[in-house]
Write a structure and sequence with these properties.
There is one protein chain. By secondary structure, the protein is mainly alpha-helical. It has five helices and no strands. It has helices at about 1-10, 20-30, 40-50, 55-60, 70-85. It is globular, with a radius of gyration of 13 Å. This is Retrotransposon gag domain-containing protein. InterPro entries: Retrotrans_gag_dom. It comes from Cajanus cajan.
Length: about 90
């Protein structure tokens, strides 16, 4: 089961899901991948999160260099209404 969840996490994409759904799924699955947890891996976790976002949202965050996951999620919440209302 753990290996299956790791693969699911590594392949996770937002797709047509709302940001809230993507965040929930990301947080549920990241616990199966300890390489993305811990103080030393905060940048990798942010990179993985951004890589799974829809392209139009991803381009907003790609070059901001945010390395704190909760800051990234908060900024994502702030811009989500623009993108989700234009689906």
């Amino acid at each position: 089961v753990k290996h299956k969840k790791q693969v699911e996490f590594l392949e996770l994409k937002q797709g047509e899901n709302y940001v809230a759904e993507y965040v929930t799924k990301f947080e549920d699955l990241v616990r199966f991948c300890p390489m993305y947890e811990g103080v030393g891996n905060k940048e990798e976790k942010c990179v993985k999160f951004v890589s799974g976002l829809r392209p139009e949202i991803k381009q907003v965050f790609n070059y901001q260099g945010i390395t704190h996951y909760h800051e990234l999620v908060n900024k994502c919440w702030n811009c989500k209404y623009h993108f989700e209302n234009n689906l």
